[in-house]
Amino acid sequence: MAYASLGILIFALLVNEFREPLLGIKKVYAPHNFGFNFVFFLPSMLTAIGLGFAVIGRTTKYWKAWTDFNKKLKLIGLSIPAIGIWLFMIIKIFIN
C-alpha cells in the first residue's frame, strides 16, 4: 500500500504538471481545469492519502509484532509524502 500511495501520488502530480501536452487541457481555461481536477486529480489524491493513512495506521497497529525496524520506517517514509502534500495544500488554502 505504501508503494501504491507513492506511485499514485507521483503519477497524479506528473499528469497534473504535463496536462496540456498530454491531454490538451490549458491551465488558464477554467471549465476544463474543473473537470480534470474533479474527475482525475481529486480522486487520485484522495486514494493516495487514504492509502497513506492506512499504511501508517497498520504500521502503528502492528508496531510490536513486526520486528524489522527498517521496514517500518520505509513504509512510513513512503506514506508521508501524500499526507505532507495534503497538509501543505490545506495550509496554503487557509493562509491565502
Write a structural description:
By secondary structure, the protein is mostly helical. It has one domain (2-95). Helix content is 83%, strand content 0%. The chain is built from four helices and no strands. It has helices spanning 2-17, 19-23, 30-61, 69-95. The longest helix is centred in the middle third of the chain and has 32 residues, at 30-61. The radius of gyration is 16 Å and the shape is elongated.
List keywords for this structure.
single chain; 96 residues; mainly alpha; 0% strand
The level of helicity is: over 70%
Order of helices and strands: HHHH
**Share of residues in strands:** under 5%
Shape: elongated
The strand count comes to 0
Radius of gyration: 16 Å
Biggest beta sheet attributes: none
SS element count, helices: 4
Oligomer: single chain
**Overall pLDDT:** 90
Task: State the secondary-structure class.
Answer: mainly alpha
**Number of separate structural domains:** 1
Contiguous runs where pLDDT drops below 50 for at least 5 residues: none
Q: What's the N-to-C terminus distance?
A: 33 Å
Q: Short description, anyone?
A:
This protein is mostly helical and 96 residues long. 83% of the residues lie in helices and 0% in strands.
